[in-house]
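Please review this one.

:::
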Amino acid sequence: MHHSANAFRANQQVMADCPAILLAGGQGSRLYEMTKNDCKPAIRFGDHARIVDFALGNAHNSGVRHILAATQYRPETLHRRLAGFWNPIFEGQGGAIDVRYGPVVTNSADGYAGTAAAVAANIARIDALSPENVLILAADHVYRMNYGDMLKTHQAIGADLTIAAAAVPRAKASAFGIIAADANGRITDFLEKPADPPAMRDDPARSFASMGIYIFRWKALRAALISDMNDDQSRHDFGFDLVPGFVAAGGAAVHRLENPVPGSEAYWRDVGTLDAYREAHLDLVRSRREVLRADRSWPVLPAALGGVAALASETLTGELEPRDAAHSFIASHSVIGNAAHLRGSVLMQGSVVGAGSRLRNCIVASGALIDPGTVIGEDPAEDARWFRRTPAGTILVTPAMLSRRRRDRGRNVAGARIAAIEPAGRAIRFRHTR
């Protein structure tokens, strides 16, 4: 990873004594079949990245040295990513990634009871570092951020808790935890998915949405965690159970997200739903692609997403008329047949779209083989019959779904299908498959 030496040294000085706790145990149930075999942080994003790479790339660039990664659901791919790629990078700056697998830590098959419980179970590990502050990171968001700037806000205000917040359109803010703050950055209210979100003080069209990224004064958080673990009514969740107490006590502040790349707008997206996952990929190839472009001053991924987006565009231009793949992300090692039409779709690695097919608003999973002439995305009822379709119209297409569709359609032809055709001049035999 290339990085400005002066900027990196400055970040190291700010963040050297602030360890990060990476909350990476989520199943990602709203991604449905995509997380059948892997946890959400390990799901592919772009061409060669995993979702977790954003948090870790930002942490490395910000000068964070020590990461405690709390993992749980289907962690095998994630553990390989942490050990094989990221740990050597953090070791190179005098730190390490300490993986704490839930069921092993808790001696329970259920593992951690919630996000706060994941930190509480590792208090001794954190105490050993004697930190003044700790950074809590979600492992499943797409964004660029300098955590050192957030720590400076935290220290300047003298807060017990500072919450990172992104400006989102007020019309869409009901989907998030919304922050209201005074002119000094002190949080006055925290509202979970409010029907009437409060606007930002300086922008009536937008609201402050919590990014699920926190910096706590460790002594204050430690005491709150112990109290929370003794509360039988608690869900042991940061957003629901711990943050409201800090806000009510007047000790919480807000830090507004800014893009650390000069001249670039701030960008953040929680990719925890199929709709958001598809939209984030489309951001790579349409007008907003510059927010994630390659930049040596703040590289967030093993493979720069800006380069991936450019490569996808070149592939489309070379193999298809641009009108036949409008606003679609095409990953490497995927195949598109002649005269196929794509609209607003995402093709993951190793997927194949047969000649003459028409796809609209699809996520085509790795390894999926779409037969020639297939139409997906034009008939909601037909789409929902075979595939996973969201109310907003995103359609997930997996190899298993396509296999079921072929099998069931074949069985509808007189209850049989041709298993073999004898040489010319002999009878054709049908093999019943029910």
The longest strand covers residues 206-217. Residues 303-323, 413-434 have pLDDT under 50 and may be disordered.
